[in-house]
Design a protein that fits this description.
Structural class: alpha+beta
Number of strands: 15
Number of helices: 13
Order of helices and strands: HEEEHEHEEEHHHHEEEHEHEHEHEEHH
Low-confidence stretches: 1-7, 128-137, 197-202
Distance between the termini: 28 Å
Oligomer: single chain
Radius of gyration: 24 Å
Length: 356
């Protein structure tokens, strides 16, 4: 167990760095380069570089092997974990092994300068509380959370704004903003101070807020969008008797197409097709007339998926590339398909992230 290569977990790094800053007021930043073994390098404010040995979870039975494994590493290797229990914390301190966890437990001793000695233990996970499910957690990927997160990712001015401005942009209640932002912090996607992620991995507002690990955040948004927000905004699904019938719908220029039809405007046979209609627009009444004209039959499993656009007219009629990519996933396009690769690259260009 302990001899396995630690897995890079940026979410855990961000959470641990934020907890560290809250405890002692020192910033931890993630370097762009890595150490000789390929592990992340962390810079502790005023005390140099540490290679990060990351462990999401440390079973009690494996603690001795873990300590032995870390002792074999070069000096200034810090254990980063989700939780370090008091017994392991004491064992690490005695062995002089630096550590920090997502709850604020930590140990650092800078013997070279004799100017740093930090040791905090005893912070424990809340009982009967699964990550992402209790209190303010779990809000970021609900209907309202997905709407707000869309604007935070696509509009830097929204990330800069007050709670009231965020709520107005996303069309949600002001009281929902705080719990959503807190959940993003808990999941390691939002920081306000502390860890400074690489520029290619963040979108920062002028007030100090920054979204981090943009590729992972965008992919998670896309997965939840189809299952949560898109489902809530669905107007109807229609059976397509033949593909010529779909082309007739396309020729009417009703609303805006998502997915592949938005991506390349070329007709291809897919599992389903997404058509977005603007809220409160004449599109809705035109849909009824069109369904009568073309004899479209409603069905929960129909190939034509008609959805009410959740974004405002100020952001344009056509879906953002983020939405287009999610639609393509629901349309059954393989992630290995060339058009998916191109669509994802466009998402990253728009969001300022690094494709991965």
């Amino acid at each position: 167990m302990a001899d396995q290569e630690p897995v890079l977990n940026k979410h855990l790094l961000y959470k641990a760095a934020i907890a560290f800053y809250h405890q002692v007021g020192l910033r931890v930043s993630l370097e762009k380069r890595v150490c000789e073994r390929g592990w992340p390098l962390l810079r502790l404010e005023g005390h140099g570089l540490y290679s990060a040995y990351i462990k999401n979870w440390v079973p009690q039975a494996d603690e001795a092997a873990l300590v032995e494994s870390i002792l074999k590493q070069p000096k200034k290797t810090v254990l980063v974990a989700d939780y370090v229990n008091p017994q392991l914390a004491e064992r690490l301190r005695v062995q002089g092994i630096p550590f920090m966890d997502a709850l604020g437990n930590l140990f650092f001793s800078d013997q070279s300068k004799q100017s740093l000695y930090l040791f905090i233990k005893g912070y424990k996970p809340k009982k009967r509380e699964a990550p992402g499910l209790s209190g303010a957690e779990g809000r970021a990927f609900t209907v309202t959370g997905l709407q707000l997160l869309y604007y935070l990712m696509t509009d830097p001015n929204c990330l800069n704004g007050s709670y009231r401005k965020m709520a107005a942009a996303a069309g949600i209640a002001t009281g929902s903003v705080g719990p959503i932002l807190q959940d993003l912090k808990n999941q390691g996607f939002l920081i306000e101070h502390g860890l400074n992620p690489p520029a290619s991995d963040k979108r920062r507002g002028s007030n100090g807020r920054a979204l981090v690990d943009i590729p992972s955040l965008a992919k998670k948004w896309c997965e939840y969008y189809d299952a949560v927000l898109k489902k809530r905004k669905r107007v109807a699904r229609f059976v397509i008797e033949d593909w010529a019938q779909l082309q007739q719908v396309q020729k009417r220029r009703l609303g805006s197409w998502g997915g592949c039809l938005q991506s390349d405007q070329a007709f291809q046979e897919r599992d389903c097709y997404t058509l977005y209609l603007q809220k409160g627009a004449s599109d809705l009444s035109s849909l009824e007339a069109l369904s009568d004209e073309l004899n479209l039959k409603r069905s929960p499993h129909g190939a034509l998926d008609v959805v009410e656009a959740f974004w405002s007219r100020e952001h344009g009629h056509a879906p953002h590339p983020l939405i287009t990519y999610s639609d393509m996933l629901s349309e059954g396009v393989s992630r290995d398909d060339g058009c998916m690769t191109a669509a994802w690259q466009e998402v990253m260009i728009k969001l300022g992230g690094k494709a991965g």
